[in-house]
Specification:
elongated, Outer membrane lipoprotein wza fold like, five-stranded mixed β-sheet, wza like fold
């Protein structure tokens, strides 16, 4: 429960914030939970302290073994790092070294991969670093939700060649409800709906796309874009909605003389330049 609470605190702190890391950036050696079970393709660093010639960076082969220099193959698939270390030491004791001392670490994880798509800071592929890996952990790993108000997501899971879609109640997850924090399995894809946007363009300080939330008005959108600049023609603001256009007198709206206009996802607000 403490882990879930910590993940949700991080998730809340990261939601909507930009991330300096990308999912495809070169990553440092992963921090692996003691419960993680090694799989085919994972790359290990094996250091035999008592005989460095037997050390090396070794991939786990398709037969589930690593090929130790001089000493040959040892099965490690399905073992934790501690279990694999014991396997290697037992193998070395059997005719190679009297009292082998081995240190073992993971350089790269490729056997158990999860995917995240949609409305997170850094969509992409992420390795499972523990035997039990939860939706909240994957959201934190991928930088958090772009839109903190996202209500639902889905986990896509292939079962016997068939796609199973498992709903995720993000609202319940944010409340710390443990039952909503689905345990993931290798190959799962977490699909988060992309954040809905509105667009503000023309004579504003920061033109661009902005997150839409229920209740967003035209004046709020302009304020989010830093407000108008000195050359803006605020009496003839153009609201573009699909193929329809509407002229809004923002000057009167801001003075309280006209009602503000409620926006919808995808709306485009254009502030023209004054001819004077």
């Amino acid at each position: 429960m403490r882990r879930l609470a910590r993940n949700l605190m991080l998730l809340g702190g990261l939601a909507g914030a930009p991330s300096s890391a990308r999912a495809d950036d070169p990553a440092p050696a992963p921090l692996v939970d003691p419960s993680y079970e090694l799989g085919i393709g994972d790359v290990l660093r094996v250091d035999v302290v008592t005989d460095p010639e037997m050390s090396g960076s070794l991939p786990v082969g398709s037969d589930g073994t690593v090929d130790l220099p001089v000493a040959g193959r040892v099965k490690v698939v399905g073992y934790t790092l501690d279990g694999a270390k014991e396997q290697i030491e037992a193998h070395l004791k059997d005719g190679y070294l009297k009292n082998p001392q081995v240190t073992l670490s993971v350089l790269k994880l490729v056997s158990k991969i999860l995917k995240v798509t949609g409305g997170v800071a850094t969509p992409g592929e992420y390795p499972m670093t523990s035997h039990h890996f939860l939706v909240s952990q994957l959201l934190v790993r991928s930088g958090g939700l772009v839109d903190p108000s996202t209500p639902t997501a889905e986990v896509w899971r292939d079962v016997a060649g068939q796609r199973e879609v498992i709903p995720v109640d993000v609202v319940a997850l944010s409340r710390g409800e443990r039952a909503a924090d689905l345990e993931l399995i290798p190959g799962d894809t977490l699909v988060v709906p992309p954040a809905q946007q509105i667009f503000v363009d023309g004579n504003v300080q920061k033109p661009g796309g902005y997150m839409f939330r229920d209740g967003t008005t035209l004046s709020m959108a302009v304020a989010a874009a830093g407000g108008t600049n000195g050359t803006a023609l605020t009496t003839k603001v153009k609201l573009i909605r699909g193929e329809e256009q509407q002229i809004v007198n923002l000057h009167r709206v801001l003075k309280g003389l006209d009602a503000d206009v409620m926006l919808r996802p995808g709306d485009h607000v254009y502030i023209p330049e004054s001819p004077i």
